[in-house]
DNA sequence: CTTGTCTATGCAACGAGTTGCATAGGAGGA
DNA sequence: TCCTCCTATGCAACTCGTTGCATAGACAAG
């Protein structure tokens, strides 16, 4: 499992509270690893108990105090060990693909709206990624000399962009197939 | 959750035993939905209890008897209802992306072997998909006039092919980035 | 003749992930 | 003033998914 490791990476990039992590998991990290705040708080507690991360109570004004977590020496060791051991290529789970194959036994045309909805969602994500790329990496305000961390973050973001573009093209293909089915129906 | 639905679709395409389903989930269905035999047997039992599927004991020679499952009327209804309700675009989980961002805090060069390993795995899958496409859809032995089911299965397979090609190109990109980091290290 | 693989089914325990709910102060709008 | 949203943390219950193990006959290779 990699939620612990995703949290370690995120805290190395920048220390933060469970709440802040939850928000990052809705944004940048969430592009390739999702988690809810309940899950994050639970895992943070365990990681703290295991000595992977340190806590610091940060009093705040006008809002509740927060616990800021940062990676401890042991956490770095654990992450390093994980980085050096091979992992299996991810197993995919695509509800939509199940639906598309299932549509053969129902009304395929009824699926068109759903596919278009997904296409819009992917188009939105793509727009969002491209804006992020312009802001952080390729735009005029982006830092010119980039360190390893930025180079790698950019590489991951390019992966997200490639994924969304692929999905948009494929969903176009699926729509064409669904429309092509119409006459014989 | 969609394991039930994936099983219903698979059983509609062709009735079969838990064992056969488990093998299909290593092959065609497994391209977009993974499940182990333990999971499948457990869910089949529940689905049978709920009246979604029917069982038929099939005695065999030279090998253990099997229970052949097929979709009951209620199962069809359940599937149809699911097909008509909207689902959220999948949440992705990419261990490798976590590793790539994590590599900035360790030795990025050490990741090259791992990325190449993943690339080989994706190349193998692509080869496998392309062989399947040739066999079932575009080759000389493929049926000429295809029904809706085949058209849709082919569309899903094209999605798998597009995905693997995208991954191969992206992993090339990642490798180039990792190599580009070398000098400054 | 033993070892290993294939078909075929399943239990038990555990770990991961989701859903619902709860608390609580401050800010802003109707 | 009340209602809602935002920050911030967390528990409890449940479902989903993984891992390890067990059984058992048939067949092939060494």
Summarize the entry for a quick read.
Chains A, B: Residues 7-80 form the Transcription regulator PadR N-terminal domain. With 185 residues, chain A is mainly alpha-helical.
Mean pLDDT of chain A comes to 92
What's the helix-strand series of chain A?
HHHEEHHHH
Count of distinct strands of chain A: 2
Order of strands in the sheet with most strands of chain A: 1-2
Helix content of chain A: 55-70%
Strand % of chain A is 5-15%
Oligomeric nature of the chains: homodimer
The geometry of chain A reads as elongated
Number of helices of chain A: 7
Q: Using only CA atoms, what is the Rg of chain A?
A: 21 Å
Overall domain count of chain A: 2
What structural class is derived from the secondary structure elements of chain A?
mainly alpha
Largest interface: A-B, 69 and 69 residues
Low-confidence stretches of chain A: none
The major sheet of chain A is characterized as: 2 strands, antiparallel
End-to-end Cα distance of chain A, whole Å, is: 46 Å
Would you write up a description of this structure?
The structure is a homodimer. In chain A, strand 1 (about 55-60) and strand 2 form a beta hairpin. The longest helix of chain A has about 35 residues, at about 150-180. Chain A has helices at about 5-15, 20-25, 35-50, 75-85, 95-100, 110-140, 150-180, and strands at about 55-60, 65-70. The first copy, chain A, folds into two domains: about 1-85, Orthogonal Bundle (Arc Repressor Mutant, subunit A); about 95-180. By secondary structure, chain A is mainly alpha-helical. The termini of chain A are far apart. Chain A is elongated. The interface between A and B is large, with 69 and 69 residues. Chain B binds a DNA duplex (30 and 30 nucleotides) through helix 2 and helix 3.
């Amino acid at each position: 499992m990699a939620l612990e490791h995703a949290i370690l990476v995120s805290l190395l990039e920048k220390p933060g509270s469970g709440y802040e992590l939850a928000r990052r998991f809705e944004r940048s990290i969430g592009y390739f690893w999702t988690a809810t705040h309940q899950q994050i708080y639970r895992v943070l507690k365990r990681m703290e108990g295991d000595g992977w991360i340190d806590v610091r109570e940060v009093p705040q004004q006008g809002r509740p105090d927060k616990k800021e977590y940062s990676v401890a020496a042991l956490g770095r060791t654990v992450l390093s060990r994980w980085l050096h051991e091979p992992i299996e290529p991810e197993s995919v789970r695509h509800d939509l693909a199940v639906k598309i194959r299932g549509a053969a036994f129902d009304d395929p045309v009824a699926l068109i709206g759903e596919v278009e909805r997904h296409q819009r969602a992917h188009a939105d994500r793509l727009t969002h990624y491209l804006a992020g790329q312009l802001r952080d990496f390729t735009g005029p305000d982006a830092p010119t000399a980039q360190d390893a961390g930025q180079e790698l973050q950019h590489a991951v973001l390019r992966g997200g962009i490639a994924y969304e573009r692929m999905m948009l093209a494929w969903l176009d293909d699926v729509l064409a197939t669904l429309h092509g089915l119409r006459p014989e129906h």
